[in-house]
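Objective 1b: paired records.
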Amino acid sequence: MTKAREIMTPGAECIGEQETLEAAARKMKDLGVGALPVCGEHGRLVGVLTDRDIVVRCIADGGDARTARARELAEGKPVTIGADDSVEEAMRTMQEHQVRRLPVIDGHDLVGMLSQADVARSLPEDRVGELVRLVSADRY
């Protein structure tokens, strides 16, 4: 059974919880990613920030990305997957929480990010549609 660590993108870069959303957007652009883990004291994961969060929850609401901090949008306990968890567990987690990206942890350490695309590439072709349907399904 394939494990998260086998298909994840290793070496995820964090944005510090006190860094601005503008800095986060620049980092996303430079890295070519749409989400960043938000890390606090001692590199501990405190949330995940997406490009959509910046646009919808800051800019569209009249906020200033130059002064708003990453921590402000990293609410609640982050949804994660263990490095040794199976692809099926990752799919269940993505479906349950309706997320397309999961930080991968090993113990308390962030070791990578697992995206819907990473999971899709690991599945047989006939299961990819199932993944997209499960993760994108309306919850209401």
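Objective 1b, second protein:
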Amino acid sequence: MKRIFISHSHKDSAYIADIKGVRLNDNHSLAFHDRSLEEPVYNDFGHINRRSPEDSASKLVRDEILALLRQSDKLIVLVGNDTHSSLWVQWEIEQFSRIHGERSIMLMRTPDNHRGGAPATVRHLSLESWDLQYLSRWARR
């Protein structure tokens, strides 16, 4: 079973729940080991870290995500209306590409995305429509 990290803008978190819910359904063929963050990473003050990846205060978040990316076989990038401007999504794509290359990256448009594109670094990759059956087939390859 493949180990998959799901990169997304936090505005698209509901779709993560959809994917994880289908993955747990025995009647659906989508199966993978989820390597995404289970919970947000908090700063020293107990607040969710919302700083950019380049900010030194984000080191704990970067380290945790980087460890998960290293353990992942594939990367799904959910492309919502604002994903193209997410510094964290761009950083995750860059790190995964550096470690594993681009062949194991899939871009999938969220159902409500009618205008947003992929981050500039991966615009040359195919942008798939929201299709959990397609995602299931891709995850097994």
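Residues 87-100 form the longest helix (14 residues). The helical segments are 13-23, 59-70, 87-100, 132-140.
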